[in-house]
Amino acid sequence: MLDKGTLERLFKTYCKPGFTYAYGTAGFRYKADVLDTVMFTTGVLAGLRSIYMEGRTVGVMITASHNPPEDNGVKIVDPKGEMLEQSWESYATDLANSATQDFTAFSVFLQKLVHELGIDTNAPGNIAIARDSRESGPRLLRAFLSGSRILPNIRITDHGLLTTPQLHFLTSKGNEQQNGPAVDRFFYYKEFLSAWDDITALCGIKSLPYKLEIDAANGIGAPRVKEMLSAHKFFDGNFRVVNDDWQTPASLNHLCGADYVKTNQRLPHGIQAKNDCPRICCSFDGDADRIVFYFCDSKGQFRLLDGDKMATLFAKFFQSILSSVNLQESLSLGVVQTAYANGSSTHYIEQVLGIPVTCTPTGVKHLHHEAINHDIGVYFEANGHGTVVFSKKFDEVVSRGLSNRHQSSSTLQSLRLLSKFSNLINQTVGDAISDMMGVLAVLSILGWSPQKWDLEYTDLPNKLVKVLVPDRTVYKTTNAERQLLSPPGLQGKIDALVADYQHARSFVRASGTEDAVRVYAEASTREEADSLASRVSQVVK
Ligand code: NG1
Ligand code: ZN
C-alpha cells in the first residue's frame, strides 16, 4: 500500500466529511456532486475485492441508469458478471462512511478490513471499468482511479463509454478467456450477432417481421446499438434510433426512456402514434439495462409490453421447446418476479402456463440469485429489467442431446435453438440490446405480431406513486416487500383499505435508489386502482 503521507494527500483531495452513504438497490446512487468520497473509497474496495478473488477481474460501472442527468452512481460487478456479493456491500458502505469522518477513521477501518479478510495489499488485482454518458462521469472516474491506485498492483482496463450490461458481460468473459481475443465492445457485438445469425439461419428467418423503432433515452445505448446493428443485413434500413442525443447531458432520460414510458404509460417524445405500417417500438433506459416494448393498436392507442410481458413470452417459448424435445421433466423452468409484477401476469404464468413463480425483493441481484435455482430461470422486473439464465445442467443435457446421432432432425433443430438462445441472451444481467434481440427472435419464430403478444393476458389496472416522507429508513418490510413491519400499525391500515376493493392489492416500500417511498396498487378497474393508490398514499404520509 502507499505510504501514509501520499495516502493522506490523496484522501484529502477527494474525501469530504458530513455525508452518510448506503449501498442501495443498484450500488451507490446520489446527486453527482456528493459522490467523490464514495468513488474514491469504491476504488479502494474494488481493488481489495479483486485481490480477495485471487486477482480475477472485478467490474465497475459508473451510472445512475434511469435517474436524472445530475445524478450518478457506482456499482461493483463480481467476476462472473453478477452483482457484488452482499457481505461486501456492507464493507463498501462502512469504508465510505469511515471516509466521511476523517483520515484516521478511514485508515483504521481500512487496516481492520484488510486484516479481517486476510488481504495482501501488494498482491495483483484487475478492474474493468466503464461509465455511461453523464457529464460527471470523467470527474468521478478520476476519483475512483485515485482510490484504486493506493493498492500498487491493480491493473485497470478502462472501457470508456459502455452500457451497463456490456460491462457485466465483458467482466465475465474477460475472466473466462484469459488468453483469447480482446474482450472489448466489438467482442460483445460479435458474440450476440453471431448467435442471432445462427438462430435466424436455423429457423429460416430472412428479415425482421416489422420495422423497429428504438428510443435510446438520449443515453449511451444510442451509439452502442447503432454501432452494433448498422452494418448488419437484418437491421440495416429496418431500424431507427430516436432520442439518440447522448452528447447533450441534460437530455438524458428527459421525456423518454423505459422508465418514462412505463411510469407514464405513454409514448416517449420522438415516437409518433401511428398504426399505418407494421412496427414495434421499444425504449431503453439511460444505461441500456432495461427495455420495454410497445405499439399502437388499430385505434392508435398506446399498448405497453413491459417486463412482465417479456417474462411470459420467454417462459412460454422455452416451455414449448422443452416439451417438443421431451425435456420438460429433466430441465426445470421457473419465473422470478417482484411484488411489482402485475397480478394478471403471475396468474397467467402459474395457472395458464403451469410454470412456478417465485417473488423476491426488488433489485435484479435478488431475482438473479433466485433464478439460478432453475435450469432455465426467467426473471424480469415489471419495469423491463431482466434476463434468462441457463444452468450448467442445461448446457450438459443440451450438448449430450446434440451429440446423440440417433436424434430426429426436428429434435436436433430444437436442441440447437435452445443452445443458441443461451448465447443470444446476456445471462449476466438484464440487457436492453440482448433482450431486444431475444424478443425479436421469439416473435419471428412464433410468427407473432405485437398485438398477438399483447393478447396473451390483460394487465390489471395499476398505479405506482412516489411519496416523499421525512425518513424512508423507518419503512421496513417482510414477505418479499409485500408487507410492512414498521412503522407500527401502518400495514393494518393498508389491509383495511385494500379490503374495500375487488381483486385489489397494494404494498408500500422505501425506494433503494431515490429518497422516497413507493406505493403500488392494482385493482379490477382503473378508477379503483387510482383511488386505492391515492388512499394508501394518504395514510403513508
Ligand atoms: P427502487 O428505487 O429501489 O424502487 C428502482 C426500480 C427497481 C430497479 C432499481 C435499479 C421500480 C419500482 N423500482 O428501484 O426495479 O430497477 O430501480 O435501477 O421500478
Ligand atoms: Zn438502468
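^ zinc ion complex. The domain at 4-161 is CATH 3.40.120.10 (Alpha-D-Glucose-1,6-Bisphosphate; Chain A, domain 3). The radius of gyration is 23 Å.
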